[in-house]
Design brief:
Elements (H helix, E strand, L loop, with lengths): L1 H8 L16 E6 L5 H9 L3 E6 L4 H5 L14 E6 L6 E6 L3 H13 L4 E2 L4 E2 L2 H9 L9 E5 L6 H12 L20 H6 L4 E2 L8
Parallel strand pairs: 1-2
Antiparallel strand pairs: 3-4, 3-7, 5-6, 7-8
Helix pairs in contact: 4-5
Length: 206
Amino acid sequence: MEEVRRRFLNPSRRQTPSRQPPDYSLSISLPFHPSLSKPLKTILGQHDIKVTHSSSTTLRNLLTKTKTTPPPDLTPNTIYEISCLDCNSTYDGQTYRPLIHRMKEHERCYRLNNAYDDTLDRIKSAPAHHSLTTGHRIAWDDIHILKSLPSRSHLDLTEHAAIHTRNPTMNRTDSAPKCSSLWNPILPKIAESLKPIPSGISFSSS
């Protein structure tokens, strides 16, 4: 009886085994987003993928409007759109240089009938190639900036989102930037931030 009383008054403490963190087979770093990061982490965790969040490239930087200091035609790190006047074809591209520099290259390829590089066996300018092979007119005086970005490192993902969601028909899928399919859930969000604004570029007097 005394033994029962002693055990009742002084119950032995069972040691709760400590929970070991799961051993993931793959680890990736993604930009943090308040509403997307948690569900993405849960989904990827179910596939044995560990998710950490980086602070250098955030979705806020990709989705929020950045203040453009230079004139639109001199803006670097842009996603731009070139359209056809005779059909619904469009081209979405990127450049880390001032926009006017890349537009002059496109227009020069058209004007000099030099849209294709025979040596490298590749198209140098998709808009120029579209015009030269179809006889259609390109809207060289109505080029738009879809997004200006804070740094060059954001260009590939943003252009990938533009092409993936907008389906511009002049773009060639073999030359488009390749991004991991893990980004697919947020591509529509990035695409929502693409707002066409006139670049102010004109080749009429060139």
